[in-house]
Amino acid sequence: MKYSIIAIGDELLIGQVTDTNSGWIARHMTPRGWDVNTVQVVPDDARQIGLAIDRAFAQTDVVLMTGGLGPTKDDITKPTLCRYFGGEMVLDKAVEANVRQVMERRHLKLNEYTRLQAMVPSSCRVIQNEVGTAPLMWFEREGKVLVSMPGVPFELQGMMERAVIPQLLARFNDGEDIEFRTFVVSGIIESALAMQLDEFERNLPQGIHLAYLPEGGIIRLRLTGSSTDASALNANMERLSRELHDILGTHIIADGDKRLPEILGERLRERGLTLSTAESCTGGNVAHDITSIAGSSDYFKGAVVSYANDVKMELLGVNEQDIIEHGAVSDPVVRQMVEGVCRVIGSDCAMATSGIAGPAGGSPTKPVGNVWMAAKCGDRVISQVKQLPGDRSRVINRATLEVELLLLSLLS
Amino acid sequence: MKYSIIAIGDELLIGQVTDTNSGWIARHMTPRGWDVNTVQVVPDDARQIGLAIDRAFAQTDVVLMTGGLGPTKDDITKPTLCRYFGGEMVLDKAVEANVRQVMERRHLKLNEYTRLQAMVPSSCRVIQNEVGTAPLMWFEREGKVLVSMPGVPFELQGMMERAVIPQLLARFNDGEDIEFRTFVVSGIIESALAMQLDEFERNLPQGIHLAYLPEGGIIRLRLTGSSTDASALNANMERLSRELHDILGTHIIADGDKRLPEILGERLRERGLTLSTAESCTGGNVAHDITSIAGSSDYFKGAVVSYANDVKMELLGVNEQDIIEHGAVSDPVVRQMVEGVCRVIGSDCAMATSGIAGPAGGSPTKPVGNVWMAAKCGDRVISQVKQLPGDRSRVINRATLEVELLLLSLLS
């Protein structure tokens, strides 16, 4: 089943807010056999919204629309939908009561603008927003469906799961089964991987294809198959998964669409090991990444961000002479950082980073992007230096990924 | 000047990668007077790419296209562009030399797939990619321009700044001046803000408008004006800025499109104060946010992420009895955390968080989203508790913002 997404909002088009809703919708619709045809991002402009709906309906029968429903004047989605689908703007008492309730729960007063939320086109069926004030609206005409949803990610996600996805699945049903397998691959670049998989790809059965999803130093391989014969599809996917493992061996670091901190967490949990981090250039991002995983408190004990050198020395016990001789960005320093943080936090394993995130601070011998990393697990300590490309944020993110891969190699 | 963006890639449509390129492009084109008409996100599919180009050219003369240029088989942009603009695929010796150089710099070997990067449509003018292997391609036909660029953010950004933006500005020039003013507003909800600005908005001169850009607990107000009379426009914008300050007073925490850690950094730097963080539920995200700002090492000394209670006690000196009596998520604990981290890190100011990020760990009295925060500056310590909505990642991000606002109130 194909559908289109329309994301509305000047703030998306000028780049002040990134549209993460479309990705979220896709991640939750695809496993149910729904493929996005295209995403259109359009401004808070009646004509552009109308054109986008025309274009979407020309290709798919279902359109999911996000945003443009805020109470302020730059939002004009509702009247536009009213003109498109006919009818007039009417006050919906149930929506009004809901808005009042939501505002009370947040200890806020209902005002003229929030009250406007209760005006909806008479041509729609309202889906009550249980977590916010903007109502969801289900429009249907000549077999085509458009659902307008709030752009606030938290509200969108809650209401998609509770109402929109179940109602779409009930309304449309084409009997085709979809299966996905994702494999997380590291230690090989995309072009080399493609060469290794050349024959595998050429021999893929009809209805099954392979996609490469590189991100940072990791490549996700996604095998997708669709068929009306679910059991034959499943057998094929099983066989192809085994073949991929045979071809790629330890390059596959995980089955499933897992993030690296999740993979690390599973390995640590299996072995009953605890973790800490000692961070200079990553500034807490490694700890943040590790703790983005629910349940990470089972193995993650804490971190020391030693941005200043005196914190490296006083809190982590890094030798001052080594900083003077080798610099803060050096092998002896990151090795002492992992040792020190395991000692002060009381953990079995640790990761450490020290580098030049930029844009300033680089030198000919240690240019921006130069990062030393160490990982410790029990008695084993390993370290590496990498020259990472890109700006400050890219260096920080890439260093985070590289030091996590380094620790993973100790846990394999 | 209006333009369209087309972002190509199955990985964008299935939500495994978020399209941040379109936002980046917009943020760098808008100040030059270029407005995005629409963004279309389409799959690696020749027909969809062709349709998207048709739709874009129907509305604008300039199309910026990103992605779909990787060396693996799921990328089919180049042959599609070749069919669209005519000509044939030819080997470009300069691109081949560039690919070889880039690969050597990365200590990688040229293989069959990377060599394919050197094949380009004869109908385009190549812009050499100085930071990656995929060449940029400038197509022009009947006054319409399409520029195809790599989807890797780092490569796209480098080449937009070095080549694409200057060449677009040279090629098109409509003589209209654009001015932007952004104001960061806090401590007021969007609908209440809209009511306060009702009269201001109704009296805005022609060609000037106001947009609300709420994000988390902060609202950005953006005043945009365009005119062929640059000095009249500038005078108007000056006057309106003063009026906004008069109406909103201390609700405006900064002029300009600044992020909160940047505003905090400016205040700390002005006063010569240093900063540290003590984090439980935010897991290092506050430190990460602070250090995302270039130059933050001038005032940020370090952080202790005390995820486990024994780290709170041993490293930060939090009283065990208080944890037993009040729980780790409590006023006395966050107050002792800011005191402790200032002591062990040796900083003047600090922020601390302790809360239930979820999804597990909630209780009737302390549900998921319950977060205690403290801020310290010199002798003054303040604290607050917030009940934050949303999932784990939203609670972490919102707690980060709220504790930063708390510290800001001490620095005002």
Examine the secondary-structure arrangement and name the CATH architecture of the largest domain in chain A: 3-Layer(aba) Sandwich
Total of DSSP H or I helical runs spanning 4+ residues of chain A: 16
The SS-based structural class of chain A is alpha/beta
**In total, how many domains does the architecture of chain A comprise?**
3
Strand content of chain A: 25-35%
In terms of quaternary structure, what is this? homodimer
Q: What composes the largest sheet of chain A?
A: 6 strands, mixed
Written description of the protein model:
The structure is a homodimer. The first copy, chain A, has about 400 residues and is of the alpha/beta class. Chain A has 3 domains: about 1-170, MoaB/Mog-like domain (Molybdenum Cofactor Biosythetic Enzyme, Chain A, 3-Layer(aba) Sandwich); about 175-255, Alpha-Beta Plaits; about 260-410, Alpha-Beta Complex (Maf protein), CATH 3.90.950.20. Chain A is built from 16 helices and 17 strands. Chain A has helices spanning about 10-15, 20-30, 45-60, 75-85, 95-105, 110-115, 155-170, 190-195, 200, 230-250, 260-270, 285-290, 310-315, 320-325, 330-345, 390-410; strands at about 1-10, 35-40, 60-65, 90, 120, 125, 135-140, 145-150, 175-185, 210-215, 220-225, 250-255, 275-280, 300-305, 350-355, 370-375, 380-385. In chain A, the strands form 4 sheets. A 6-stranded mixed sheet of chain A has the order 2-1-3-8-7-6, sandwiched between helices. In chain A, helix 2 packs parallel to helix 7 and helix 11 (about 260-270) runs parallel beside helix 16 (about 390-410). The model of chain A has no long low-confidence stretch (mean pLDDT about 90). At the A-B interface, helix 1, helix 2, strand 2, helix 3 and helix 6 of A face helix 1, helix 2, strand 2, helix 3 and helix 6 of B. Strand 2 of chain A pairs antiparallel with strand 2 (about 35-40) of chain B.
